Amino acid sequence: MDAKIFFPDIPAGLNHRGVFDEAVKVCGLCSVRRECLMLAMQAETNDIRRYGVFGGKTPRQRDALGENKK
Known about the structure:
mainly alpha; 0% strand; 3 helices; globular
């Protein structure tokens, strides 16, 4: 599967709506979705630059999850 589905090239200032839809659908079928999300959340603990889809969550969704843990 092409990694650009999960890590698209998005120019700054571009509306991100719908950009991650395909990746989120693929993640919905994955048996390790939870583990993938947990790995991303641990890796991003000290880094505010979230990028790509992990565990079915977009960077903005993971950011919100991280804020809820503070």
